[in-house]
Amino acid sequence: GDSVTQMEGPVTLSEEAFLTINCTYTATGYPSLFWYVQYPGEGLQLLLKATKADDKGSNKGFEATYRKETTSFHLEKGSVQVSDSAVYFCALSSGNTPLVFGKGTRLSVIA
Amino acid sequence: DTGVSQNPRHKITKRGQNVTFRCDPISEHNRLYWYRQTLGQGPEFLTYFQNEAQLEKSRLLSDRFSAERPKGSFSTLEIQRTEQGDSAMYLCASSLGQTNEKLFFGSGTQLSVL
Fold first, then answer.
1. Is-contact B11 B21, C-beta < 8 A?
2. A33 contact B CB<8A
3. Using one digit for the tens of pLDDT, what is the confidence trace for A87-111?
4. Which of A13, A52, B65, B100 would you label with B58, given CA atoms 20 to 30 Å apart?
């Protein structure tokens, strides 16, 4: 079945550092790919998405590019802030199937 | 838009008891999903509704679990004869339209089975 593998955390960075969180997937067909974020005490919320190969999703300074050849959707940000501290989940949906999530990566940004 | 609301936030119960959780989705959203999340894991799909119809159930949803969405508005998730392995965060999400592209999640109900 469909699955998502993302790098294990926790990841601890200093403010203004570069962030990469790796995500690879296994799916039949051509899934849509997502990054969701969960801030402390809040529900998961959609951060960005890409629906086809070579699409780049972006939001709040975060970017991820749908790479079909490497089945990857790595999340990047050039300069993290303390307010980016959260748990990040990579997810996919094939056709109209319910979202399949990775295990999540906890990011802590220190001032 | 008040967001997705889940009640209660926390539930502690003894093994063998029945529990029921409620989810109020965003009012115009036609789809409603239930997920379960344990510590260190991502959300795992349980079931979803389109309006009042339950369209898909995961194999994770044993016979002790039942979900309803009468009138296509709020939903309830009942767990009968709870077991310690049922301890988890139960998440509800809703979305608009025919795809799963943007789900809005509630804050969840944390269940602890003693």
1. yes
2. no
3. 999 999 987 788 999 999 999 999 9
4. A52
